[in-house]
Amino acid sequence: MDYIRLAIIDEQPVVSEGIIALLSDVAEIQVVHHSRSFEHAIHQLSLQPANVVMMMLYRPDPDHVQQVKLLSERFSKAPLLILSLFSIENFIFSLIRAGARGHLTGETTREEIIEAIFSLRHGYDFVSKTISNMVLMDYLNEKGDAGADQNLSSRELEVLKLFAQSMTNSEIAEKLFISIRTVETHKNNIMRKLNLRTSVDMVKFALRNNLTAL
User: Which of 94, 113, 130 is nearest to 21 (CA)?
Assistant: First the structure.
């Protein structure tokens, strides 16, 4: 079976063990190693590559931004998923700008963790509903872009609106009666057509062009 190789970086073993237990019955995901320190993680990733790296953060620390940047640059084929137990807006944005491809908060669920891992493995960014709402508030007054929906199909525009309302891929798929893979394809097309780089950019774009409302 072609499974997703997941590496975990976490200073608290009990949390790592909890995450591993939550994922134990997901046949498509296998935890290949977990490290208690950043240095050990670098060593492990050099010896045994991963498809996705999950890093737990318990407090805002400027060193974490540099660590995220280093991981993203050195192991670019293993997108980084952050799970932070705090919701400090500016710091979270700094982590995303440093290269984190996904971000979850302490309010996340098992289903959201699994969806985030699958999304990153297939080349898509993932942010939790909490982070999406932060983005909406932060960019509420930004200037709109001309011709917001000219290049999008009606279904792509619909997906963009729903995603900007903090709906997950699975929720969008259920609402529109399509598969999660189709939702991911639409999101990929949206980002390509609008020259957007991340899912966060999609939320910002939708807000700036009045495609959604708080």
Answer: 113
Confidence class of residue 146 from pLDDT cuts 50, 70 and 90? very low
**CB burial readout 111-134, b (16+ within 10 A) else e:** ebbbbbbbbbbeebbbbbbbbbbb
Q: Indicate which CATH number applies to the domain containing 199.
A: 1.10.10.10
CA-based nearest residue to 95, from 84, 107, 85, 106? 84
Residue 142 confidence (pLDDT) above 80: no
What is the domain extent for residue 183? 145-208
* Same domain, yes or no: 120 and 171: no
Greater pLDDT, 145 or 195:
195
Check pLDDT > 60 for residue 147: no
Is 136 a residue whose pLDDT tops 60?
A: no
Q: What is the CATH number of the domain that holds 123?
A: 3.40.50.2300
- Which pLDDT value is given to residue 27? 92
Other CB atoms within a 10 A radius of the CB of residue 201 amount to: 16
Q: Does 154 have pLDDT greater than 70?
A: yes
CA 84, CA 55: separation in Å to the nearest integer?
8
Return the closest-CA partner of residue 118 out of 68, 173, 162: 173
Judge if 149 and 83 occupy the same domain: no
Quote the number of domains for the chain. 2
Query: Hunting for tokens 């639409």 — which residue is that?
Result: 186
- Domain-embedded: residue 38: yes
Query: Positive or negative, the Cα torsion across 23, 28, 33, 34?
Result: negative
67 and 156 fall within a common domain:
no
